[in-house]
Amino acid sequence: MQELIEKLKSEAGITDEQAKKAIEAIKNYVIEKFPMLEGAVGNLFGNS
Prior knowledge:
The chain has 48 residues and is mainly α. It is 77% helix and 0% strand. It has one domain (2-45). The protein has three helices and no strands. Helix 1 (2-12) packs across helix 2 and helix 2 (16-33) packs antiparallel against helix 3. The model has no long low-confidence stretch (mean pLDDT 91).
């Protein structure tokens, strides 16, 4: 996931903390909309 954080930081010009919050928001959104993907999303973004 660190690779994604670094990509967000460089391409969006945001801080480490902002990138982590963005990923968490996306992760939660996908799980909310597609609960059947929760396991895959957890594996991809980390189970936190």
